[in-house]
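During the first year of the project, the team set up a workflow for recording each protein of interest as an amino acid sequence followed immediately by a discrete structure-token representation. This format lets reviewers and collaborators read both layers of information side by side without switching files. As required by the reporting guidelines, we include two representative entries from the current panel. The first entry is reproduced here exactly as it appears in our internal archive.
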Amino acid sequence: MKIRVLLADDHKLMRDGLSSLLQKEPRVEVVGVAESGRSAVQLAKELQPDVMVMDVAMPDLNGVEAARRIRMENPNVRVLALSMHDDKRFVARMLQAGASGYLLKDCACGELVRAIETVHRKQVYLSESITTLVTDEYKRQLTTTGASPEVILSPKEREVLQLLSEGKSTKQIAAKLHVSVKTIETHRTQIMEKLDLHSVAELTKYAVREGITSL
């Protein structure tokens, strides 16, 4: 039986290229593609793939938050991060969100297929270059700083922070999240207080630095 794969990447060229390559693999079936984290969550719910190949940096809802929601809604879906970022913060946050693997986009197609098969077997796959980052040092730093967005902010606050940092207005965010403008204003105030930041520009710098969004 083929492994049912759902692809999520905000770059059409990347989505089309990956889909074309994987469709040639006899062990893999691409059941769908998503262009954002939000659509990835919805499609994962509808299509029930075995493996979700997920970009980390996506607009609207990033791969970390999307992976967390997908894993909460359906723990049987295995998430494989495919990213251009080899920063330890990106790796740590994806693994904390429930991803079973992390691969860089410059990998060969053969390695991607091996990674898909590995996470489908409920094992962890890290590319060789990423393995060097998964050390006691970064785990210790992550624990001692206690300053990751997951520790400080609620899931809804992280979502609002990403949308704010991507230039969305309070009214636009309220419409997208189906809540009142006043609710978003309250979230924004709480985010600023928790992070001790005092402008949207400072929030944007923080969001980019922590991998919540990318410019």
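The second entry, processed by the same pipeline in the following quarter, appears below.
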Amino acid sequence: MEEKQHIGQLFDRIAGTYDGLNHGLSLNIDRLWRKRTVAAMTPAKQVLDVAVGTADLTIEMLRRGKVEQVTGLDLSRRMMAVGEEKVNRLYPGSVNFVYGNAQQMPFDDASFDAVTCAFGCRNFSDLDAGLREMYRVLKPGGQLLILEFSYPSNRFVRACYDIYFTHVLPRVGRLFSRDKTAYTYLNRSVKSFCWGESFVRHLHDAGFREESFVPLTFGIATLYTARK
């Protein structure tokens, strides 16, 4: 998918409206998904939040007291600027934002007790390379938590999902973000991405163990967990 080659620029363009649209278009269900992700997390000292974006998952981890220090990695400087402003209001000094590519992370081996990623994996131009990097920077025994969109298996839910993602979301997203491609890309990236057992196989191939997944909200999103 061509947009993945310029994913940082795409998110730079919608950074100012991202949070409002994200929560509004999901009817705030995305907040519940992040809460479920953090609830499944083992407390950790050093955490890497890949595709940190505007730092919603990072803030939830800090709010729940699950982490001591977070490093946020992203290819969108403007998304991170929004996230940094939010973090500094609530938890100053708790997060280090780093500009970088998830497929070539600027970190040493075994640097983090846990690695998280919310709605970022489907944007990797090479999913397996990104997962291998997550494995590399994770300490032995460390936990991986990935929250990602998936495709509902129930026919009725899938039909409603298709209508919303194909017709409603792109139009509303385009209206408020004034970007012609971002929310059309979201629809296509979700439909073309792997989920469930297929995604778990990628985790296994990257070296992870104890891989599991839990569908959320009729399978609209899925929480994946694993260990190094």
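For the second entry, the following points were noted during internal review. The mean pLDDT is 90. The longest strand covers residues 138-149. Both points are flagged for discussion at the upcoming steering committee meeting.
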